[in-house]
Structures are given as C-alpha cells and as structure tokens.
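Predict both folds.
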Amino acid sequence: MFFVALKMLTGDRAKFFGIIFGITFASMLITQQASIFVGIMTRTFGFLTDTNQPDLWVMDPKVQFVDDIKPMQDTMLLRVRGVEGVRWAMPLYKGLIQARMENGTFQTCNVVGLDDATLIGGPGEMVEGSLEDLRLADSVIVDQVGAATRLAKPAPGAPRDAEGNIPKDWPRIPLTVGDTLELNDRRAVVVGICKVSRTFQSQPVVYTTYSRATRYAPQQRKLLSFILVKAEQGVDPSILSDRITHQTGLAAYLTKDFIVKTYMYFIKYTGIPINFGISVMLGFLVGTAIAGQTFYNFTLDNLKQFGALKAMGASNGRLLAMILLQALVVGVLGYGIGVGVGSSFAILSKNSELAFRLVWQTLVVTGVAVTFICILASLLSIQKVIRLEPAIVFKG
C-alpha cells in the first residue's frame, strides 16, 4: 500500500514538484532569514566574545549595550582595584575616531585603547606583527577586513586634484604593516594586522595603548570606557560583581550577562526582529499556500484511486497513513533542498558585509515549521478521503 502511495505521489510530476517547491521555498527563506538575523545579533556583541580575558566588565550604570559608551573618571579604576577579591583591574578605552585617508576622505574607526603595561583586552589572533609592538611609538594594530576595505590605500600613481585629493574610484590596495594613518590629526603607524569578529556597524577596528587612545580621542574630562576585572582564584565572579556594585556604585556584569544585555537592547529597541520576523512569516505562509493548494488538488485528482482502495477493503486508517507518508516524503525532500540552498549563503557571506550564522536551533525551527506546513497541507486531503464513498469508483 505504501508503494502505491508513492507511485500515486510521483505519478503527476507537475504537482509532485509543485509541492516540493512550496516546502523548499518556505524552508529556504526561514533558514536564510533566521541565520542572517542570528548573524546580525552576533555582530552586536562580537567585541565582547573577542575580549575573553576578563571575568567582569565594569561600567557606568546607564550603559545599555557595548557601544553605548558612558565615560567614567580614571579614579574609578583605583576604587575597583581596592575591592576585595579583585585579582587585577585594567582600563579600556573604546570610542569612534575619524581616520583621514590618503585620498582626503575620512573613515570612522572603532578605536580600542589597551592597558599600556599588560595590553589586556587585545585581539586574540594576529595575522601580521605582534601585540607587543603596540609599545612602539605611535603604533596601532588594524583589523584585517578594515585594512583590506575601508582603510585600503590608493594604488601607486594616483592623480591628485588641485587640493591634493585622490579620486575615490582610483584602485586601492590593502593597508599593510609600516603604513601610516591620521587619527584625529595625529600620526599612527600600523605595526600589525589582526583578525576580529565583525562589528554591528562594520567599522574598521584599531587597537592601540590606552594612553595613546586618549590622545587620539577628542579632549574631555572623562575618557575611561570600561574596566576589565579578573577575580581572585576561588572567588565567585557573581559575588564579586555584587561587591563592586555595592562599593563603587558602578555596574559590573559577567561577560555572558553583558552579551545578553547587548543583544536584548537591539531586540527590544530596534526594528530588526520585526523585519526578519515578517520575512520568515511570509515564507511560511507562501509555502503553506503553495504546498496546501497543490497537495489538495493532488488528492482530488486521485479520489478515484482512493475510492478503489476503499472498495477493495482498505480502512480509513490505512488511507490516512498513505497520505501522511506522501506528506512526509515531500516534507523531507523540500526541507533538505531548502536548508541546503539556505545554508549556501554561508559561502557568500565570507569576506563580505553579509551577516550569516547558521546554528542548530535554526534547523530545528525550520524543521518544526516544515512539519506544520505538511500537517496543514494534508488536513484538507485527509478530510476529503475520510468522507469518500467507495461508490465514486463506479460513477462516470
């Protein structure tokens, strides 16, 4: 009987492929849009995952996410160091500073200032140079993507206009070790290229020492962005967090808690979830409509066959099992093809601005959605078969 069900399913190739197309479209769109959404959310806290040395991030209580900088007084660093259970506490500067390019244009960079002595908070992976080279005069380390794109320098032989500017469409080559930049009208020498996670705003990331970063930054009374804290061995970071907050009045978060705080801000106060949710829902509805309508028409075209099976003694339960088998086959095929096509965007996202991150939870959600589509598509068909009279075989 199950073999007959499969023969009936594949007998009409147009309807068979139409059902698969509907489910494939739904699973592809859900997988792709959900993965892009996860990729964008991951970029919001990419800087936190790259900076994995500290146990705690200490900041102004009004900070809402990692890029919402509320500078503190430098004296706060000494107060945090005086809290019992703190192994070390290091300053970190994080801010947006404009870099002047050789063609006369400006590019906003995400400048990170590390503790001069320990360089804690630096990039985890160096492509060229060494982190210790930041101790050289006027030295900076630039992220690999930023050096190859937005901070790339003009190719040799570039023409200049009367003001000395180079045309924007002139070919450019990646920034390399030994090249120079101007950060807020101050000289910066590239001593290394690092690999970091993409940021939400996709701006180039520039690392330097804390004292040098504060000189690059516009002058203001408060410049300390964060305090990175490591707990003493045997001290629970959660307890230390409460202790720091109680004694200093500052907010202290575990890295995982600060990550949650960051992406929850974007979920609550931006339109990103709504936009991607609409796309996912659209894919689900379109897939349900195509698959449901095609599957229903397929059942109508095969009513005589189902009636013949009923006349030969097949029970309603056996016929229902046949329909569910047909739905399962097209569901598995559509899910596999759709997820495969949706996952291929991971290849396109490499070395591009496309944020794409496929996690196993996305595959589960897509599988549940496809299962629901198959159930909805087969419900109408099941009702039609249950009410079917075997005598239909002998009509006409």
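Second protein follows, with its predicted structure tokens after the sequence.
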Amino acid sequence: MKRFSQLALPYIVWAALMLVLPMALIAAYSFMEQGNSIISFSFTLEHYIKFFTDPDFLLILWRSLLIAVKTTVICLILGYPAAYFIARSGEKVQNALILCVTIPMWINMLVRTYAWIGLLSEDGIIQQILGLVGLGDMELLYTEGAVLLGMVYNFLPFMILQIQTSLSKMDHSLLEASADLGASPVQTFRRVTFPLSIPGVINGITLVFLPAVSSFFIPKLLGGGQYFLIGNMIENQFITVGEWNFGSAISMIMAVIMMLLMMAVRKVELRNRGGKEE
C-alpha cells in the first residue's frame, strides 16, 4: 500500500498543479470585483447576478444546452446501430470497422472541422451534389445545421466506441437462452441486449454531451460567428472583452451544471445496476 502511494504521488502533484489550482483561481476570480487581484480580494456576487438577470445570457445558455441535447440524441440514434453491427461482426471485421471509426480521431479536431468549411461552402462538393438534384440554392455553411453537423461528426466516435465496448462484453449465452425460451429477435433486443448495453449508452451520452455543451471552435468556424454558444461567450470574455471575472463566473456556472449532470447520470447508472454507490 505504501509503495502504491509513492507511485501515485507524482500524479497527485500534477493533478493539483494542472487541475485543482486553475479551477481554484477561476473560482476566486469569479467572486472578485472587476480588476481585482488575488492579493486585494474583494468578495462579490455581481458577476453571477449579471448572468442570471440578463435574458441574452440565459438565451445563449439555453441554446447551448439545446444543441448539446440534439447532438447527443443524433449521435445515439446513429451510433447505436453502428456499434451493434460492429459488435455482432467477426473479430477481423470488427477490428477493421473500429479502425475506420477511430482513424478520423487521429487527425486534430480543428483540422477536421476546417475541412467541413470547404465541403459546405458554395463551391463545395456537397453544394455541387445538391445542385444536381435542384437543391443547389440551399444555404449550408454558417447555419445551425452546419454547427450540428460538425458536432455530430466530431463526437459520434465516442458514442460508437462506448456502446460497442459494452455490447462486446455482453454474455452471448443470454441471447441463446432468450431464443431457446421462444423470444423473438425484437423481444431479445428489448429485454436483454439493450438493458445490458445501457452502461455503454450512459458513458457515450456523457462523453458526447459534456464537450458539446461547452464547444466553442465548432460554432465559431461552422457558424461563422453568427451562432453564439456559451463556449464562445466564455472565450469572448477572456480574449476579446478582457472581463476575466465575468468569464470565470460563467465558467463556474458551466462547471456546476456539468457536475450536476454527471451526478444525475451516475444515479441513473446505479439504478440500472440495481446497486448502491460504494
């Protein structure tokens, strides 16, 4: 046990410096008056009151949560069948399909998002294809649809991999037992396969929703600055406006929202397992 503690010490120090300290500084700045420093700390709730009393800020928060929910639902609808197909494939085919899912993740997310600008632009491939069927006048870039497409494209692999892992670990003898008892494939899926895959679904939802709700460069690139989300708002407060205190307050609000969502997801997962938290 002592040996384990010694090995964990470097990670604990790294986590304290890289994770705990920055969050502590952000929390401190969020309760300071504009322009104050840590040395001359002056407590205030002005920045939190400003956020929750301004309808424009609340609208941006609601829009961010809404597009994150849309992204998560679409990823689940597209990701579950793909994960199910991969999990039911042979070992060699399964490895090849997983490789196809993960290959795009080898490329930087920013580069992948930039590629969609060329595809969705007026002279892009997608616009040209739509033009062949008489839909060439549709506006694709700098719209909510473009932002949603970029979100789904970037975060879909997280959903697929989590669900596929859960399905692959499933005891296939349960499926055989279900068939022997006279259950149809649909009944087997509804009563055996899907309940056993819920942990993967919950993990996939978490890994998609949390980065989607705080994403800032996807809306900035594919929304053209016209589709403003909470991540863009935080970036704007820190970089453009220079109001670090207000930006810190917004960051803390989002951190609390994410922690509450993770706690809710944890409770759902525990309830599904029928156990209690250790």
